[in-house]
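A quick aside before the break. I want you to see a complete sequence-to-structure record at least once, exactly as it would be stored in a machine-readable document. Don't worry about memorizing anything.
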Amino acid sequence: MKRIGSFLVAAALIAGTVGCAQPAAFCNLTVANTEGGEATSPGEGTSTYDAGEVVNLIAVAENGYRFANWAGDVGTITNVNAAATSITMYGDYSITANFVAVYDLTISSSVGGNVTTPGEGTFAYDEGTLVNLAADPDEGYQFVNWTGNVHTIADVNAVSITITMNDDYSVIANFEAIPLAQYTLTISSTEGGSVTTPGQGTFRYAAGAVIDLVTESEEGYKFFTWTGDIETMAAFNASSSTAHNQPPMHFSITMLGNYTITAHFIVRWAYPDMIGPGL
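That is the input. The structure line, written in tokens, reads:
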């Protein structure tokens, strides 16, 4: 009898509770849960079981939460990360079913690119998770910014960012077409006429654009020449005709830089030696 008693005491010491491990003894299991769900089996509170009895554990999460793990006296729980598992009663145990909030991150993009990390669509993350996002513009486009629920994003103008999931969020990656290089064309004229197409003043055009120019002279004057940045200018019917009514003169200029040009007019029948380089 002493040998049997010594064995039972030793077994009880290994288990952690002498009295509960003895034959015909009873063990108490106290179950609690955090916000977001409950332990439906055996239920919250304290229940009594025979020493060595295997007790099924089941935890059920509420909407917007997921089961995380069992904590506390979990040495005899089969799988602390499983919502449905079991515990073997070798002592008085106190355990807690832990739940964690889960939030949705909905990601989309405008025309001109996409979100490559983690992708586009709706993804679920635990509360507090740091999620990396990366935007990739298409050819001919550039990334602009992130909009939507962006208050946890450090820099909304960065292509690669991190968002902290403290709620359900929806974010959009915005892209825009890369503007073509543009140049300015400043047009003026002397007394006696004007540039009717495109007009007089400063205009902005895409690089390489071919711009039509039309000059019209006033009565008693005629078009004579252009001066300024005229290296890329071409003439169509720009003769310095001395006819009584000079028709509108047509030219073009190719925009390869910022240009300033002036249309010169002279009194009909006058022939100055030089006004400037002409066409």
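Two observations worth writing down. Residues 1-19, 273-279 have pLDDT under 50 and may be disordered. Residues 226 and 263 are 5 Å apart (CA to CA). We'll return to this after the break.
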